Amino acid sequence: MNPADAIDNIPKIIVSQKNFYLTHATRDISFRIDNLFRLKQTILKHELEIFDSLKKDLGKSRFEAYVTEVGLTIEEISYHIRHLKKWARSTRVRTNLINLYSRSSVIHQPFGLVLIMAPWNAPFHLLIHPLVGAISAGNCITLKLSEYSGNTAETIKRIITETFDQRYISIFNGGPDVVQKLLDCRYDYIFFTGGIHLGRIVMEKASKYLTPVTLELGGKSPCIVEDDANLNIAARRIVFGKLLNAGQICVAPDYLLVNIKVKEQLIEKIKNCIVRSYGSDPHLSPDYGRIINKDHFLRLTELMKTGDVIFGGEIDEVDRYIAPTLIDNVKYDDPIMQEEIFGPILPVIEYHDLNEVIPFLNSREKPLAFYFFSSDKYKVEKILSFTTSGGGCINDTMMHLTNPNLPFGGVGYSGMGSYHGEHSFNTFSHHRSILSKATFLDIPLRYAPFKNGLKVAKYFFK
Hints:
This protein is of the alpha/beta class. The chain has 2 domains: 3-217 and 413-434, Aldehyde Dehydrogenase, Chain A, domain 1 (3-Layer(aba) Sandwich); 222-408, Aldehyde Dehydrogenase, Chain A, domain 2 (3-Layer(aba) Sandwich), CATH 3.40.309.10. It is 42% helix and 18% strand. It has 16 helices and 20 strands. The strands form 5 sheets. It has a 7-stranded mixed β-sheet. It has a 6-stranded mixed β-sheet with strand order 5-4-3-6-7-18, sandwiched between helices. Helix 3 (29-45) packs across helix 7, helix 5 packs parallel to helix 6 and helix 10 crosses helix 11 (263-278). The radius of gyration is 25 Å and the shape is globular.
């Protein structure tokens, strides 16, 4: 089948999925658990292929590919298998006095047909993770892969087609024409991970049918280091968060705000941590990743022209390599501070007092993540109270992602909605409120004519 035929076939496949959903097969809890188990087994079967694909696309080592993509996904599947029966039960809630002799409950039902669109930077994890929640909640699913991470896309496509009937879970790859064709179809829910520009398009398309959406968009996630922080730990954890996947992670620390009293010490410790982690020449390190493609490489090299490079700065366009790079003397209005970096470049901005930082953060769009290093509980409480973000860590970076009990998602420009663990089940479920009332008692107060019922009504509603 040529690409044009495949695109033209999309509406037919969507219709077949909607028809399959109406058979109610996906509502059965055993069906959901069985398919989660099958997905897990197929992933384990193709684990080496996934590793090789991620190496080709992003230069990921097997360790990094496992802990950031495969391992997290396997854990998520296992978590859903263990807890799904409990989550799927209808939930009893208290009934108020005005509904005496009634039973109130919330029934958790699938939306129907869900579209999940994944980005290129964590192409396996950020597609399969929400897929797990959509399966768990009992939906049929349409998947859209990122064409930028082509090797991983092909591997995922093999996994999905080998495991699932196309009427239940379909999968597509391709460029803007495929995205356009998919978004022209009607869904019951859309889950999108990617950039703000495409996120706006998705939301605009969804508005045609008032389709609910989850948008995971990213943004410039700040990392703040106070003068009372444990600098050795801070440096190590900042390097970990910034350089994993060569900085191409939506929750990577985007820029560093550091108290001037410890700025020089912290910078030296960060340099030392980079060398300890990736050697004196990270180009030779088997653990250091590569930029996804030439366009992103060129964009990053332009951003490196801001400020003064004080560490790194080496590039290799053929190999899509950019060294871990620290840039000093960066100003708030410099080009590198106007967009998400999404690469191994860390701008450094000094400050004198934490009270300077809070209004600056609040003047910018709300970030997906937020990192604060300090040993002072008062400062921690203060900065959490007076700023906002999708999520974050105190005295660490990125690790909030690994706890399935924490919702992961953005706020404002960094997105809307959340997932992971039970939050994924809830995101892909419609929570239907039902009041079941007895018929042996029927209080006449609510029926017209109302006469002098106001006093009684005020008693019930106070």
